[in-house]
Amino acid sequence: MSLKLSPQSPVDDGQNIALNMCDRQLRQYAHRFQVPRITTRLPFKRNPIDVSAEHLLYSWANWVYPYSSVSRNRFDAFASLGQFSAFVYPFGRQDLPDRFANTAKIIITMFILDDHYEESWGDGRGRRLDLCKSFWGEWESMIDKLEDPVAAPVPITHWAPYLVGTYATLDAVAIDLDAVQRRRFVALWRPYGAVNVAETMLIKTRLHELTSVKQIFDIRMHTIGTQQLMMLSEYVEGVGCTDRPGMTKAEWASPLWQRYLRECCEHMICVNDMFSFEKEYRQECGNLANMFNVVALTTRLAPGSTVSDGMRQIVARIEAYECAIVDIYRDIVTGDKDSRNGEPSSRAMRRMADRMLYFVGGNYKFHTVCDRYRRFSAISEC
């Protein structure tokens, strides 16, 4: 029995490609650099729970507030970011609202954690080298406890409040995962702290040595959190039980799937860096050399190029990624013998491949409407 693909799947008839475009001119708030228009081949759809349970959205977000260690005004800006879940989990089951709520909480807490570390007002004091190891040391302790609550050596009372909230949410998710999914969940979150330390060391001491955007991708693959959130597409749909098994360890580790993950993640990094460029540019007072951003690096590596030139090159990258993503998706769904060595893809793998198309397409759509990347009234000009 073949898998019934999502109605808007770009391969639902084996040939036709769905074209989606944000046709309206993006509302800009005193932007110096316009984000180029992108025509995407990837589908996107908003989960209806975002509307049907709208009265619950604020309460789900507000659950995070006591743990956030930020002011109410600042938190309200974070709270709206929970809507990311509606864009990247369009098929999350409405009869499992707690699972949708947990993904929204994770997204909000991750933005709070990142800003606490990266912004000058946060506990990391703008990525101070003398604080980064202790800051992320608490993260390692939290992951130890998530993996084995009994053996974890550091009591929860020693953590920053936002890590307590993060742990509570990650643990609530892990409880509902099967054994394979839980091990994958912990393994994907495990390097997050250590790679953030490595990223900080590079930014503070060797940023001028970068010679390729691949060096940014290799780090951001682990610090942007996309793989961890992608795997929760199974969780929000209740996949991972005996009658609806999820992807196996071997399938997730297969070269084809890892290539698919890589293309999807690099696409999302490019989208994020393009839409967040203005925000980061203002924070660094217009100094491209201080920006850990693929648009900034692309511009710097081409003497005489403008930021607009750099953005156009990133758009070209995004278009190339989409071609590769759709090609790999077809290989997975159709069981292309050249790519799968004759092995058929499981129903779970085909389902997950379909959901990742919507995840990546939803990430793009979210960035076009997210105020975090469009409004800068709280950021002073340098």
Automatic annotation (TrEMBL):
The keyword Protein transport does not apply. Its EC number is 4.2.3.-. Its cofactor is Mg(2+). One of its GO terms (molecular function) is terpene synthase activity. It comes from the Eukaryota. One of its GO terms (biological process) is isoprenoid biosynthetic process. The keyword Ligase does not apply. Keywords: Lyase, Magnesium, Metal-binding. PANTHER family: BETA-PINACENE SYNTHASE-RELATED, TERPENE SYNTHASE. This is Terpene synthase. It comes from Medioppia subpectinata. The lineage of its organism: Eukaryota, Metazoa, Ecdysozoa, Arthropoda, Chelicerata.
